[in-house]
């Protein structure tokens, strides 16, 4: 049972989510990946990868280290140019070099990109300004996400002095600023303490239930199994299988598991 203070905190968190009509959250593709390929010298990082993520869905990108998950995120964010393939957001094709679509996205990379000699508060204010959040809302959102991740006491310390877990928290906070419609989170729970990980997962579930869209990568099967609506299994740059929640729940009823299905696929 949550305390009244905890309930109030979560209500404040969800007030940053832009609510969408229920009818708008069905069958609307927010992200469409079509035949993406990317090679680095002799390594085929992505090979003809295709999948889509509908509005209101929390999609897990599951794969071992080196599967191509981070490469895919970088292509989506325009940080890498694909060798082939197309990318669409909300039905509109996006060409490499375009930037307007990124205003809808909150992105937290696997390795946080931070300014070491800013404080946590200064960094979040800087990111909020870059996202064109108004000055009044900037202060409010910065205070909120610092509190959400228990960083208030460390907010005015230099990021250079932050632990790995604190860096992960400030990176996630930056991604959530500005009420994005889409979240791209690469190995988001890595380095988080159990309480922060739990709160993050609750927030993501509510974010998508209210019409947001999230693509969440992990190599930890249990995380995506319990959190996501849908899973894309990525291995050696290929999308081996797409699964809906009812499919891995059926496996469990039959005495098998998502873990067994995953191991069978990647060892084939």
List keywords for this structure.
single chain; 268 residues; alpha/beta; Rossmann fold; 6-stranded mixed beta sheet; 4-stranded antiparallel beta sheet; 37% helix; 25% strand; disordered N terminus
Structural class assignment: alpha/beta
Distance between the termini: 45 Å
- H and E order: HEEEHEEEHHHEHEHEEHH
What is the annotated CATH architecture? 3-Layer(aba) Sandwich
Q: Could you give a short description of this structure?
A:
The chain has 268 residues and is of the alpha/beta class. The protein has helices at residues 4-14, 69-76, 120-130, 135-148, 164-176, 194-209, 221-227, 245-253, 258-267, and strands at 29-40, 43-54, 58-62, 84-89, 92-94, 105-108, 182-186, 213-218, 230-235, 238-244.
Describe, in plain words, how this protein is organized in 3D.
- With 268 residues, this protein is α/β, with parallel strands linked by helices.
- It has one domain: P-loop containing nucleotide triphosphate hydrolases (Rossmann fold), CATH 3.40.50.
- It is built from nine helices and ten strands.
- The chain has helices at residues 4-14, 69-76, 120-130, 135-148, 164-176, 194-209, 221-227, 245-253, 258-267; strands at residues 29-40, 43-54, 58-62, 84-89, 92-94, 105-108, 182-186, 213-218, 230-235, 238-244.
- The protein has a six-stranded mixed β-sheet, sandwiched between helices. A four-stranded antiparallel β-sheet has the order 2-1-4-5, with helices on one face.
- A hairpin with a 2-residue loop joins strand 1 and strand 2.
- Residues 1-11 and 21-25 have low confidence and may be disordered.
């Amino acid at each position: 049972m949550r305390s009244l203070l905890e309930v109030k905190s979560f209500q404040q968190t969800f007030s940053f989510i832009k609510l969408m009509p229920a009818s708008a959250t069905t069958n609307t593709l927010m992200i469409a990946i079509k035949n993406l390929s990317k090679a680095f010298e002799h390594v085929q990082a992505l090979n003809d990868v295709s999948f889509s993520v509908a509005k209101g869905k929390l999609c897990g990108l599951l794969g071992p280290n080196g599967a191509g998950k981070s490469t895919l995120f970088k292509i989506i964010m325009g940080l890498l140019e694909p060798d082939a393939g197309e990318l669409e957001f909300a039905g509109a094709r996006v060409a490499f070099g375009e930037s307007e679509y990124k205003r809808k996205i909150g992105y937290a990379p696997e390795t946080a990109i931070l300014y070491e000699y800013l404080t946590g508060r200064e960094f979040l204010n800087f990111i909020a300004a870059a996202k064109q959040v108004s000055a009044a809302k900037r202060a409010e959102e910065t205070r909120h996400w610092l509190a959400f991740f228990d960083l208030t006491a460390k907010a005015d310390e230099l990021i250079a002095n932050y632990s790995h877990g604190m860096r992960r928290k400030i990176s996630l906070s930056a991604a959530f600023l500005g009420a994005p419609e889409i979240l791209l989170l690469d190995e988001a729970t890595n380095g988080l303490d159990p309480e922060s990980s739990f709160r993050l997962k609750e927030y993501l579930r509510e974010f998508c239930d209210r019409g947001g869209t999230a693509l969440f990568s992990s190599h930890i099967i249990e995380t995506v199994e319990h959190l996501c609506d849908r899973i894309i299994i990525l291995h050696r740059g290929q999308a081996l299988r797409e699964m809906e929640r009812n499919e891995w729940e059926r496996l469990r009823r039959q005495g098998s598991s998502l873990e067994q299905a995953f191991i069978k696929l990647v060892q084939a």
